[in-house]
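User: Need the bound-state model for 2-(butylsulfanyl)adenosine:
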Amino acid sequence: MSDGKQDDGAARPDVAALDEQRASDEIADLSARIAQANDNYHVKDAPVLSDAEYDALKQRLLALERAFPQLARPDSPSQVVGAAPAEGFGKVVHAQRMMSLENGFADADVTDFVSRIRSFLGLRDGDLAFTAEPKIDGLSLSLRYEDGVLVQAATRGDGAVGENVTANARTIADIPHRLTGAPAILEVRGEVYMSHADFQRLNAAEGGRVFANPRNAAAGSLRQIDPDVTASRPLRFFAYGWGQLSQALADTQMEAVERLAALGFRTNPLTRLCHDAGQMLAVWAEIEQQRATLGYDIDGVVYKVNDLSYQTRLGYRSTTPRWALAHKFPAETAWTRLDRIDIQVGRTGALSPIARLEPVTVGGVVVSNATLHNEDYIAGRDSSGAPIREGRDIREGDWVKIYRAGDVIPKIADVDLSRRPADSQPYRFPETCPQCGSDAIREPGDSVRRCTGGLVCPAQAIEKLKHFVSRAAFDIEGLGAKQIEMFFADPALPIREPADIFTLAERDARNIARLKNREGFGARSVEKLFAAIEDKRRIPLERLIFALGIRHVGEVAAGILARHFGTWDALLGAVDGAAHEPAFAADDKARRMALADSPHWAELTTINGIGAVLVQSLVTTLTQPAERASIDRLIGQIQVIPATARQVQQTAISGKTLVFTGTLERMTRAEAKARAEAMGAKVAGSVSAKTDLLIAAPGAGSKAAKAAELGVTVIDEDEWLRIAGGS
Ligand code: IVH
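Assistant: Bound-state model below.
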């Protein structure tokens, strides 16, 4: 393997010139050599190949597998990456989304939660029970069993798509490989974590490489490419829920979890049944008291409605169930000195103040930066002008109290005036962009000051590009934040806007100063980068929409827009139409209201999940001439894969507009609305020519009369319950 020539993929015959037999021989040869190199590197800790040699072997194998896909083996080492553990895992589309939890902090959040559920279900004082159990601070895992056999384990990922970590999960002692007496399809969900004792032992054993906390250690260990490494790590698993099932486990949450325990899973012994908010708060206090001696990290208590038929009726918001609440423990805090306030400019131009701190340990993690939110927050007032921290402002040189809650950026809770230096000055928030010098202005009602430089502002342009290549957007391997900063400033081969990414290879070919001759690059890595870019020239519509970094348009909204319009041209058509509505104006509420009936505007704003603020931002951005020209250049370089409408079950009311009036007697208005929306209908507040169906309950008034006048179909509650499957 010291023979450099042989290891250099470029010296081998062109892939296209090979026949299947020779390709197969070479794949076998390369696979063996790469597997050997992996073993030397990861297990024996004695690498024999340079990184470049190793990459060359892998690139050659990939090229062969692309040319002869029938020869690619699922366990091919091309699927295994040496360095970053996150790469190389296959993707798993969850049969049922993995949700997150709504958070509560105060006692009132718990009482609100209980009364919201009562009112949603229309339960005045009937029995309503909740389970309360520790919220484990680890990472969630979904285990799929078919006919009692563990066939797949997947991380949560973005909730819809996770990583396939089956081989690794099989090495965890708490995870059974076989179950007896389980439903034919059973997805068990729970948390992978590491105990304090095991974490300490691991960190001591690993010497130099130390994990910040047990959660990171658990995540790092589960997401190892080599299952042998995972096997050597002391991971544990608590089961607390389920995904897809071929048959219900039980009628209540408590019994379902007991059933999981009977099947052989570890479930948390502190799980309790509560009948009101008072009992829930008592269990919370009890669990918090035990927190320090449990031997593993927990960060709160999770309450779940016990009756599973109620859970079904309550259903889900976009990412969280209505039937559960995570009641968090107070965050850990620490005092330190604030050295300096820096201003960062984000991709939408927002000026974000960052506190640079004397490093301090908070909850096991060293913190040296904290967010200061916005200028009001620094000045000691909230967005309505009311005082926060009793009006105490924050200055450079102050002693401040830091807290961390979850994985988010640390925040500042308070400031110690008794330690304020005598010569300190109130902080003056910049009124021009520190990056480009353009005016930074605050729109009325906005707490954020924004740079008005648009694409002229290098900070905005760079942040936009970083967003463009990020994981949920174009996800270009080898082109991350660091490379974007480098290329943005590059005089010979600049990337200043997304389109430039797709002309990079071509510009490089015409350039005298070729990329491959630069330091830090080699022929192999440049080839790899260009291949990764080529690979994304075809991009799904939803990714494109998200990648543009339009304010208020996140991943979820991008998905909704993509599925609604199907193609980029259709979306643009609606946007351009809305922009040409004579009264369109970005900030005039009255005129905005007047637009509600105009066809293009209405097409955008009546999409379920898309609000007026988002539409405003979408239309303004996509019709801004410089921005549009830049996007058009991008579109000229890529091929957009149209979106197909998500397979939703067709129901009797799919796509129809419903109006409820009067007082429903067997279902609350909130539940009826949620049910109608879940069945693909829209629910409007008033009757118009667009109404398809009016549900008139007792006490219906003018709406029923108007419906009759317009010839809208009117039904009563019994009929509605029949449609909604309630009786
Ligand atoms: S139930 C649909 N129960 O917390 C509800 N989650 O912040 C799914 N977690 O993603 C979650 N302990 O990883 C549930 N006892 C528990 C939990 C728990 C920890 C995690 C879980 C979830 C996250 C949400």
